[in-house]
Write the structure tokens for this entry.
Amino acid sequence: MIRLVLESYLLLIRIDLLISFGRLNAIKTLVQREPIRRRPDGLAANSHTVRRAMDLACVFYIKPVLCLQYSAAAAVLLRRYGQAAEMVVGVQILPVDFHAWVEVNGEILTDKPYVHEMYSVLERY
């Protein structure tokens, strides 16, 4: 679990830097290029364990974590540990708002189950 929290924390830093420098396309590329790894070495982690590690990393993070930052890091981490995760970006028209979350096989992992009712999907990766 410590390894997962550390990986989560480092991903949060990396993605935060990309956001700070306006490199939003680099975040998309980071998520898209992360392969779904099958872990025969006993390091496979289920989605609940990854979410717990992400949440712990957020507690210790130096500033508030944005949904885009959390979702990108969670999607990358889930893919590293064998889950077919997709980061989803959605928009709400009135009031205008953007939001990101993670899904695995159509199941929303990092948000409320009714997020599709609030946001229209813009992109999945």
